[in-house]
Amino acid sequence: MHLRPLEQHDIPELMRWFTHQTEVLHWAGPDFRFPFTPASFFEDLQPPGVSSWVLEADDEQLLGFGQFSLQAGHCHLSRLIIHPCFRGYGFIQILLTKLLRRGCVELNTHTASLFVFNSNTSALNAYHRAGFVTQKHPQGKLHEYCSYLILNGID
Fold it and tell me: Which Gene3D superfamilies match (predicted)?
């Protein structure tokens, strides 16, 4: 398994992972268009300053996707997702580890952050297993339905 940059040819596969507008909203936020086309999906996935990566198996099967950017001095992870057929097998831990290694080196930081919906208990559990802890957002509480998590001491 390896991490590689997102490429345009990955978009049709990623698009198949979403069937409802609510899924897209919870994953990508309100500015992501739905319904989408391959062009709009790729465009909305590439905001300035955000680095997009896919987790790929040795047989080139797409297993996951995630992004990182520098926010408040942290390697901020966003839009993390595992292929629906491969959820529950621990691939999120591999994706997190690989994204954090690359992101922290590229962004020259040893801390990470992310947001997660409180209702997404499987994601919350996965992030806690990875060492993330819930903290108050530096700008105060953003939304009652969302938590802000931090991970310190990344080598």
Answer: 3.40.630.30
Given a contact cutoff of 8 angstroms between Cβ atoms, the answer to whether 69 and 50 are in contact is yes
CB atoms within 10 A of CB 94: 17
Q: How confident is the model at residue 29 (pLDDT cuts 50, 70, 90)?
A: confident
DSSP conformational letter for 138:
T
Q: Supply the pTM of this predicted model.
A: 0.94
* β partners of residue 4: 54
Strands 112-117 and 74-82: parallel
Class of domain 2-109: alpha beta
The CA-atom distances, in angstroms, between 97 and each of 7, 22, 66, 77, 92 are 21, 27, 11, 11, 9
Ordered by start, the domain boundaries in the chain are 2-109
94: tokens are 């591999």
DSSP codes, 1-16:
-EEEE--GGGHHHHHT
Q: Which residues pair with 81 in a beta bridge?
A: 65
User: Would the pLDDT of 140 be above 70?
Assistant: no
* Residue owning tokens 């996965």: 126
